[in-house]
Specification:
Layout: H1 2-20, H2 25-40, E1 44-50, E2 55-62, E3 73-75, H3 79-87, E4 91-93, E5 115-123, E6 126-135, H4 143-161, E7 180-183, E8 185-188, E9 191-198, H5 213-236, H6 242-255, H7 258-269, H8 274-291, H9 295-316, E10 330-334, H10 339-345, E11 351-354, H11 362-370, E12 374-376, H12 381-384, E13 390-394, E14 399-402, H13 406-427, E15 434-435, E16 441-448, H14 455-460, E17 464-469, H15 471-475, H16 483-497, E18 501-505, H17 533-538, H18 540-554, E19 558-566, H19 569-588, E20 596-603, H20 613-618, E21 621-624, H21 626-633, H22 652-667, E22 672-674, H23 682-690, E23 695-698, H24 700-710, H25 715-727, H26 734-742
The structure holds phosphoenolpyruvate (PEP) and magnesium ion.
Phosphoenolpyruvate binds at residues 467, 469, 508, 604, 625-628, 675-676.
């Protein structure tokens, strides 16, 4: 073992010296294959690199025919080399031609080689290529030899990252240079062009090979001790929720794992530097991540990945702040990000791209509030993207183009320009009413949730805020906000609205929207679980405090409050009474009371549409939360990509249902509005208005397009069309409505 280790170290040192010699990428690769074949006593050593995501190319060889260099190619998964690349695990065989998947490549002359050892060249999740040694004698390579070649591959990976093998030809074009497209999912619509800003810039390792293993072992032990202390400190912190604790417990387990440290020490003994040893372990974990489907195990492998990054930062002293300047038009790229961190970046960002995330995640909620395009599930983008890379984010399609080709960028710019031109056309409508040709006036309000949203109230020409999502103020903090803090925020929101109506929706949290400081309840079906008003009524402390903050903020001004997710009259009555009690308490304390009071409910569950008349009579107003209502009406989870777009609100069943609600509100003279995302989609907005809903609340950017369309059409005509379609048995009115629109002068 000792002999092999010192040989391995010798090999790495020779490798490093070879790399240090001047020369182009090709010369270096040639020298390396020669060196490795020689050191390992094999006739053949070949290096294959990826020329695109799918294709490997033979880039250098000692022993195979030199004419085949840059000519021999294979797809990932094809032949033994392709198998190594796909599985990211070594293939070691004494009889290669008999091995399943062996592909005979006459041009290389490899038929005479019986033994084959191939290991992947990879760096923290990035597949770079494959290194192969072959010999005529039929023998399996020893464990030490496999380890040694893996260590060599690690050094090659680091050097590839540093650009040591850049040369002519597709496979040697250098990393992070090629255009890559990512197909993710929409988190927030909109399009943006900019430059990558990595939330967690990658650690750059410049010294993969080390001369003195003892020093390196001391370094890694010291770094691991520091890491353990920091994890223990984190765990000792109060106010951790169950999930944070679970993650930190996993961190602690890995940090104290003897196996982890031992494997890194072994790699150091073979010649790697402490940093390269950490990355080698991290690469192995990432490779495993690719093949693990179990969500729990995936989370744990992610934890190990995070921990490795921390360890690397301790070793290199490279913090998150690399001193790099944020580019102009920054587009944030991250694996995931918390709402408070995203808010810190604020409106500086043009867009956000995440590897993880979900439509209803806190980050998505903040991105929506900031009105910046967000693409989620852009798998592996943090591995590919470098700070400053050109990037296009198409939030409408959920697509991202990294380092785009000129033609793609040009087409994309046309799209942005068209959208901008339309926006400036809409700006001309800002002070005009949304009055249809038939004379019907529709009030267009905006949805908001942060102070940062309020400037849009003036810019968009919204008539008010139809939905103020108060949970955002809770989600971005580590503690329950104080009553005085909330009152100050609500008061400045009202100041900024300059007398325009703001419908404050009380806290809509629970289940999936878990506050960092709230005890987590595991529920099988969170969307239908203990959320919103259900939490507010069962644990009234926070809701009462919020109501007090609202009353104090209003002090002498009118106040509008609405309760989310009401499913039956009793819930609304109790919540309403709570608000009235708080007003009475404030009166007794001698505080200023709101000058006027409107108490409404969100209609988000089908049951409420059939509530007793008394409910409609007691409500000062009702707002349809179409996002939730649609999910329950069609039984299609709004968070589930597989079904969330499956049902269209222009389905006649849904339109009939909305008509029923309109009828019930009309009978009791209860003002009705619609504040789900559909209210901001022009065609849907027209149909909602045609059904008789006179107030729509939407993203500020949608107000222009919706107003433009409303002003061009006759809503009574559209209503007649919808009625005719329903009567004739149509299942959906989208196509007839679009045909009708095409005939209008728009
Ligand atoms: C809705 O459900 O339509 C709604 C507006 O509420 P949220 O999207 O915040 O659940
Ligand atoms: Mg809702």
């Amino acid at each position: 073992m000792d002999r092999t280790e010192s040989e391995s170290r010798k090999l790495l040192r020779r490798l490093r010296d070879t790399l240090a010699e001047p020369g182009a990428g090709q010369e270096r690769l040639d020298r390396i294959t020669h060196l490795i074949a020689d050191s390992m006593g094999c006739e053949v050593c070949s290096i294959y690199l990826f020329r695109d995501e799918e294709t490997l190319e033979l880039c250098a060889t000692e022993g195979l025919r030199s004419e085949s260099v840059h000519k021999t190619r294979m797809r990932i998964g094809e032949g033994l080399v392709g198998r190594v690349a796909r599985t990211l695990t070594p293939v070691n065989t004494a009889n290669a031609p008999a091995e399943k998947g062996f592909r005979y490549m006459p041009e290389t002359g490899e038929e005479i080689y019986s033994s084959f050892l191939g290991v992947p060249i990879q760096r923290v999740g990035e597949k770079l290529g494959v290194i192969v040694v072959q010999s005529k004698t039929a023998r399996e390579f020893s464990v030490d030899e496999v380890d040694a070649l893996e260590v060599v591959a690690m050094v090659l990976a680091e050097m590839t990252e540093l650009g040591a093998f850049v040369g002519d030809g597709g496979a040697m074009a250098g990393l992070h240079k090629r255009p890559v497209m990512f197909r993710g999912a929409t988190g927030q619509e909109g399009a943006a062009e900019g430059r990558v800003w990595l939330h967690e810039p990658r650690v750059v390792v410049t010294n993969p090979v080390a001369d003195d293993p003892l020093t390196e072992i001391e370094r890694i032990r010291a770094a691991v001790s520091e890491l353990r202390v920091s994890v223990d400190d984190l765990l000792a912190a109060e106010s951790l929720d169950k999930e944070q604790k679970q993650v930190l417990e996993a961190y602690r387990m890995f940090a104290h794992s003897r196996g982890w440290l031992r494997r890194m020490e072994e790699d150091i003994t073979r010649g790697l530097s402490a940093e390269a040893a950490v990355e080698k372990e991290q690469s192995t974990a990432r490779a495993r991540l690719e093949s693990v489907a179990d969500p729990y195990l995936r989370d744990r492998l992610h934890d190990l990945d995070d921990l490795s990054n921390r360890l690397l930062r301790i070793l290199t002293g490279q913090g998150r702040n690399t001193g790099a300047e944020m580019p102009e038009s920054p587009i944030l790229v991250a694996r995931n990000i918390g709402p408070a961190e995203l808010l810190d970046y604020g409106r500086k960002l043009r867009g956000v791209v995440l590897e993880e995330g979900s439509v209803g995640s806190h980050a998505a909620v903040v991105a929506r509030a900031l009105a910046i395009p967000l693409v989620i599930h852009a798998d592996r983008i943090t591995t590919e993207a470098l700070n400053g890379d050109a990037i296009l984010v198409d939030g409408d399609q959920g697509v991202v183009h990294l380092r785009p080709e000129d033609t793609v960028a040009a087409a994309f710019r046309d799209k942005i320009a068209m959208q901008a031109a339309a926006q400036s056309r809409y700006a001309g409508l800002r002070d005009l009413p949304a009055e249809a040709r038939c004379g019907t006036r529709i009030a267009l309000h905006m949805n908001a949730g942060l102070m940062a949203d309020l400037p849009s109230l003036v810019g968009s020409g919204a008539d008010g805020v139809g939905l103020f999502r108060t949970e955002l103020q809770f989600l971005i903090r580590a503690h329950v906000p104080k009553r005085s803090e909330l009152a100050a925020i609500y008061s400045s929101v009202m100041d900024a609205a300059k007398g325009k109506r703001i419908a404050f929706r009380t806290l809509d949290i629970g289940s999936d929207k878990v506050l960092p400081y709230m005890k987590r309840v595991d529920e099988p079906n969170p969307a239908m679980g203990w959320r919103a008003i259900r939490v507010g009524l069962d644990k009234p402390g926070v809701m009462r405090m919020q109501l007090q903050a609202l009353i104090r903020a209003a002090g002498g001004r009118p106040l509008t409050v609405m309760f989310p997710f009401v499913a039956e009259i009793g819930e609304f009555d109790r919540a309403r009474q709570m608000l009235l009690d708080e007003i009475e308490r404030e009166r007794q304390l001698g505080h200023a009371l709101p000058a006027g009071l409107e108490i409404g409910a969100m209609l988000e569950t089908p049951s409420l549409a059939y509530a007793p008349d008394a409910f409609f009579q007691t409500c000062d107003f009702i707002s349809i939360g179409g996002n939730d209502l649609k999910q329950f009406f069609f039984a299609a989870d709004r968070e589930n990509e597989a079904v969330r777009r499956r049902y269209d609100m222009l389905n006649t069943s849904f339109l009939r249902f909305v008509s029923h609600i309109v009828g019930r509100c009309a009978a009791s003279d209860t003002p009705l509005s619609f504040c789900g995302e559909d209210a901001g989609r022009p065609i849907e907005a027209l149909c909602i208005a045609a059904l008789g809903i006179r107030t729509l609340s939407m993203r500020p950017a949608s107000i222009g397009p919706v107003k433009h369309l409303i002003r061009r059409v006759d809503l009574t005509e559209l209503r007649a069309l919808i009625d005719r379609e329903c009567a004739s048995g149509a299942a959906n009115v989208r196509i007839p409505v679009m045909e009708w629109l095409a005939r209008q002068d728009i």
